[in-house]
Predict the structure.
Amino acid sequence: MSGCPVHPQNSDHPDGARLDFSAEMSYGDYLQLDAVLNAQKPLSPAHDEMLFIVQHQTSELWMKLLLHELQAATVAVSQDRLQPAFKMLARVSKIMEQLVHAWDVLATMTPPEYSAVREYLASSSGFQSWQYRCIEFRLGNKNGLMLKPHAHRPDLLAHVEAAFQAPSLYDEALRLLSRRGLPVPASHTQRDWTLPYAASDAVEAAWLQVYRAPQTHWDLYQLGEELTDLEDAFRLWRFRHVTTVERVIGFKRGTGGTGGVSYLRKMLDVVLFPEIWRLRTEL
């Protein structure tokens, strides 16, 4: 790396850059690039399968980072450490922007090009992504049925179950409001975290107190807007997924057995932080 001290005997480059890595850690060593760049194993003879594999693999890498940040942000909110949480949540929103743009690349695959690959996918589907399911659960969209696709892998199921059973980011935000003396009902601070979230007029009233007096509750007000940014980015990610799937396969059923576009459109109606959206009508 450019900041490393230069050993003169290790360089003939006029600027002193290292050229011999026979006994040093190189860029590829640090990033484990042999493993990463050899993880693409096309099953079909189709040229475009490489695009399909790389797009999904890179998305999974972004999701790994997203979960890393999201889990840490949730812990920070639970500990009343909002400034670090804001930084992490802003990063999560930016990661989602990258995931949105990944669909732009996949959308260059035309229907005939995808058809040449599709039969080789068998029943594999993004619907089965355990990382995506953890993201959904960490954001509060809980559905126990979605544990089943991971039951054949106890190691992965453990991660998904942990996300399913834990308070979501929004649950921790509401607990924080309650600790600050805002009237969040116990039904929303001491509940079964595995149940789907149910919107509450009382929770909306608590958020309204924050939004009507932002100077008094500035960090909570900022938290509400960070959550709004996050869901806004998540909606764009979902929407771009729907439009790309429709563009490439139309209304065919998904390889994982879902209705494809019809299933994905239903997911667009899921609202993660309902009271933060509803209160805007009241302001």
